[in-house]
Structure formats: structure tokens, C-alpha cells
């Protein structure tokens, strides 16, 4: 039923709960998992004359790589097929665009991510994706 399952990884417990659900589905359907993390380079802090603190993007990418490695280790342990993708940009846009471009059958996301502050000012990534995607979505608590 689901050949390709995207799992949004942001380092939150909710994201790893979503990964566990996606692992169960992948075992059941023989699916390939797409472990995707998005470095939010669209909403970095601004300074006069400098768009963001030097090295901030690199730090965010390194953090995302660690989160993805943890996810990969969990998937490898189960012997499942997977791909890893680290994207840059606005997470809401990337997580609606990438699944369409890669023929994803199901998006699995945690209910809440890592940043309550960002949710208040930018809006929930999960909510946005659920409202703007035409692909099935499983939201995990």
C-alpha cells in the first residue's frame, strides 16, 4: 500500500515516535523510508548588515545530521531500506514540495516539533503540511 514513507526528523521526541510508527508500517508494507530533516535557513535571526550569526547555518546542519544519524541507526537495526535527505529552506515548504517530487505515498510526522517559540510566530510545520499536502499524512503524538 505504501511504497515510500517520508519521516520528518527534527530531533524532538515526537519525531522519534513518528519514526517508530513509520518503521512498523515499513515492515508491514515492505516500504522504503525517507528520513528527511530540514535546516530552517529561511527564518534565521537578523542583524544589521548580517543576515545571520556566522556559523549558525553550519551548527544547525551539524545538529540535523546528528538527528538523522540517530534515526538511521534505528532503521538499520530493523534492516529496512531507507534514504536520507538533509534539506535547507523553510520546513513547511520543503516538507510539502519534497514528497511530491519524490512520489512519496505517506508522510509521517510528530504532532509537535522542537520549537514552541517558532510555532507561535511561524506556525506549526505539521499543521501546515497537513493543510497543504495532497499526500496521506500520519500525525503521531
Assembly context of the chains: single chain
Largest sheet: 5 strands, parallel
Low-confidence stretches: 117-122
- Enumerate how many helices there are, as a single number: 5
Order of helices and strands: EHEHEHEHHE
Q: Helicity range of the residues? A: 40-55%
According to CATH, what is the topology?
Answer: Rossmann fold
Q: What is the percentage of strand-forming residues?
A: 15-25%
Which CATH class applies here? Alpha Beta
Instruction: Categorize the overall geometry.
Output: globular
Going by CATH, the homologous superfamily would be HUPs
Describe the overall structure.
Belongs to the universal stress protein A family. The chain is an alpha/beta fold and 141 residues long. Helices cover 46% and strands 23% of the residues. The longest helix has 22 residues, at 56-77.
Give the arrangement of secondary structure elements:
Elements: E1 4-8, H1 13-29, E2 32-40, H2 56-77, E3 82-89, H3 91-101, E4 106-110, H4 116-122, H5 125-132, E5 136-140
Parallel strand pairs: 1-2, 1-4, 2-3, 4-5
Can you summarize this structure?
46% of the residues lie in helices and 23% in strands.
Structure keywords:
141 residues; Rossmann fold; five-stranded parallel beta sheet; Rossmann-like_a/b/a_fold; alpha/beta; single chain; cytoplasm; 46% helix; 5 strands; Universal_stress_UspA
